[in-house]
Amino acid sequence: MLNSVSIVSRPETALVGMVVRTNMQQAMTDCPKIWHEDFGPRMAELCGEDCDKNSGESYGVSWVVDEAACTFDYWAAVPAKEGAQIPDGMGTTTLPAGLYAELAVPSLEKLQEAYTTIWEKWLPNQKEYAPNEAAPSYELYPADFMESGKLVLDF
Questions:
Q1: Distance between CA 47 and CA 61 in Å, rounded?
Q2: What is the CA radius of gyration of the chain?
Q3: pLDDT for 94-135, tens place per residue?
Q4: Residues 6 or more apart in contact with residue 90 via CB below 8 angstroms
Q5: CA–CA distance, 129 with 7 (Å, rounded to integer)
């Protein structure tokens, strides 16, 4: 069972990384692939030794492209360093400042359960908040993710 959802205020966050357009049927293949085969091996180009020491945050960001078709752009990214050049084959996206519903997730194995908890259980049973269609949902992988396996889901 996952812990309760909380509301948090997040600042605008500029990110740099790689993106894949996917859908709900392909996401279980496409999202891990971008981390393990595409972006993950190139992260050191952006954060140098910090990546090797696992001392930086990373994000998995989902922007809805076509709700009816269930397609979305999924970014594997790290915070952008001001003034840093963007390597070839990478791009930028920005998490807008605002309120986000947040759920602590104990491991990647519980990620699908976390999405179900937020979208199918929490959201329909509360009246104060509604999804912001112009904002993404995202997974925040803290600096100690590789050791702890814990991550945060915000939408």
A1: 18
A2: 15
A3: 999 999 988 888 888 888 888 888 888 888 888 888 887 788
A4: 16, 17, 18, 39, 42, 45, 46
A5: 9
